[in-house]
What does this fold into?
Amino acid sequence: MSLKPINNILSVLETQSKWNEQPFQQLLKYWSEIVGATVAAHTQPVSIQRDVLRVATSSAAWAQNLTFERKRLLLKLNDRLSVSLVDLHFSTAGWRRHKDNLSQEQIISPQEHPSYLGGTDSSCKLTAPAFDANATFQHWAKKVQARSQNLPLCPACHCPTPLGELQRWQVCSICAAKQFSPSSGKILR
It folds into this structure.
């Protein structure tokens, strides 16, 4: 029985654990390092079948752009992985949004919408009893009336209109829709 130094034993164990590691698990481990954080946020490796890596993307635009870059990505992947891939296929099929992806997506705030009223509490809850529809409606109507008291009036129908709508269409959204409806005879340019 020969005694081997501990470093030799550890290196053998490390190589054995790499042999036992599945190629797809290895790929998942290094995916964000290989493709970069931005691409990793919009992609998810799905499977390896017949040495072809299938990757789900968040949109068709990402799938198309990454298809153009697949040769470069293929070289980077083959340098890093123990398996040799022959191709990459990108598709929106199989895309599942992760919670960490949600935080990276841009969220449009209500303040950016042309009908934003400004200064109102968007978390307003109805305090009327839920079982009384008339009381609930009356409560809602009072809130809307109070909220729209200081709004400018639409020049066409004289209804209170958010400033953003007037800036965008010079009338309220209802009058704007009437202007561009097929029955009005006017054509949207």
User: Anything to note?
Assistant: The chain is about 45% helix and 10% strand. The longest helix spans residues 6-20. The radius of gyration is 30 Å. The chain has two domains: 7-102, 113-184.
